[in-house]
Amino acid sequence: MSALLSISGLVAGYGKKTVVNGVDLDVHAGEIVTVLGHNGAGKTTLLRTVFGLIKARAGTVRFDGRAITGRLPSDNIADGVALVPQGHGIFRTLSVLQNLELGGFAITDRRIMAERIDLVFGLFPILKERQAQIGGTLSGGQQQMLAIGMALMSAPRLLILDEPSIGLAPVLVERVMDSIREINRSYGTTILLVEQNLKHGLAVAGRAVVLNRGLKVFDGAPAELADQGKLLSLF
Amino acid sequence: MELFAQLLVNGLGNGSYYALLGLGFGLIFGTTRIVHFAYGPVFAFSAFAVWMAGKFLGLPLWIAVLFGPAAASVGGAAVYWLAYRPFEQRGMSSHSVLILSLGLTIVLESALTLGFGPSIHTFPDFAAPIFILGPVFVTGLQLAETVTLLVLAVALTRFLQHTRYGKGILALGDDRDMARIVGIDTDRISLVVFALGSAISAVAGVFTLLNEGATPTMGFYPVFVAFVVAVVGGLGSIPGAIAGGYMVGLVESLGLWQIPTEWQNSIAFVLLFVVLMLRPQGLFVGMKR
User: Fold this and answer.
1) How far away is chain B from the Cα of A15, in angstroms, using its nearest Cα?
2) Does B289 contact chain A (CB < 8 Å)?
3) Which of A48, B130, B208, B284 has its CA 20 to 30 A from that of A184?
C-alpha cells in the first residue's frame, strides 16, 4: 500500500540554519504517527515545511501520490491537509464562531459550513456554549479545542498537529489526546502529531518517529521506545 | 460663547476629516502592520486625479470626484505590490520596510512636484456653500465630510463582517501566520487592503482639494494625523478611528481658544503622547468586530 503522505530527503531551515536535514517519513492512511524529539530537533520545521509554510531546500513531499512540495497552504487545505500550529492556533480577537468560519475559509456553501460547525460542536460541546465568546478569552484547553475544531472545518484527510499538549494541565492533555483518537477513529482521519510530552505522545501513537538534530533516528512501534534505555540513547 | 460654538463646529468638521484619514490608514496599518507613510503622496495623487478630471476632461465635480478613490486604490495597490511586497517576501525586518516607506514618500512627493509643479491647484469654479445656523456657520464641505465618514464607516463595518474578503482582512489583522494556516492568500488580502484604505484616504484627499487646493506635499501633515488617529483609537478599530479623529479634531480646534495658533499642528502629537502614556493599546483595541 502506498503512503498517504510520503516525505523523502526533506531539507529545510531558517536563514543560514538547516534544521531538517534529510528526513524520510511515510504516513499511511488511517495511521496516528507521533514525531518525538528535543527542542530544536526539527519537529515543527518538518511539519511547517510539509504544510507549505516554509520552503523545502531539497527533497519531496507527496500526498496521495502527487508531489506537493512547495505548494501553498491554501492548496493543501483544498486537497485535505490541515495544520494545527503550536501555541494558540486561533484568532485571538475574533469570536469562536468567526474562528470556525475562518477555519473553513475555503467553504463557499453555507449549508456545508453549518454542517461542519455542527460537527465540531458535536465533538467539543463547550465550543457551542462559548460560540459568541472572543477566542483569546477562552481557557487554554478550550483554545486548543477551538484550534483543532478550526482544522477540522476543512474536513481533512490528514490532520497535522504541532504539540497540542503544550501548556495544558495533565487532565486537559488527556482530553485533547482523547479527541485526537476519536477524530482518527470516527472519521478515519490520518494523524501526524508532534509531541514533546513522551508519555502522551506514545500513548496515542500507532507508530513513533524520533528526530534528533534534524535526522530521523527511530521509526517503529511505540512499545519498542518505551524501553527506557532505548529512549535515552536516542535523545 | 459664540466663538466656542464655532470652534466646536470646526472641530467636529475636522474630526470627520481626520477620522476618514485614520480609517484608511488604520485599515492598512492594522491589517498588514506596514507603517505606510507613502499614504501621504497617494492621498495627494488622488486629489490631483480629481483636479485633472475637472481641468482637462471638463467633468463636473460629482463625476470628477470618483477619479480620486479610483486613482488612489490603483496607486496604493501598486505601492504595495511593487515596493512593500518584495520586501516582505525577502523576510526583511519591519525597520527596513519603515525606511522603504519613508524613502518612497520622498520619491513620490518629488515625482508629483515634477509632474504638477509646487503651486496650489484648485478645482475649476468650485465654491463650497455656507450655511448659517444661529450663531455659527457650517460649510457644505463640513457636512459632506461628516456624512461620508458615517456612510463609509457603516459600509466598511458591514464589509468586514459579512464578506469573505472582509473576514480575510480581520483574520490577517489578527494573526498573519494563522491566516496563512487557514489558507488565506495573505498577499491578495494585503493588496485589497491597500486599495481599499487608499480609496478611503482619497475621500479625504478630495475634501482637501476642495477646501484648500492640491499641492504635491499636501499629504505630509495628513499622514501624520492619520497615524496619530489610528494609534490613539486602537489599531484596526473602526470605532477607534472615529473616536480618535474627533478627539484630535476637537482638541485641536478647542485648543485654539486658549493656545496660540502656531501650536495647532503640535496638539495632535501631544494627544498621542498622553494617550500612549495612559492607554498604550489605544482607546478601542479588540473592538473591531
Assistant:
1) 10
2) yes
3) A48
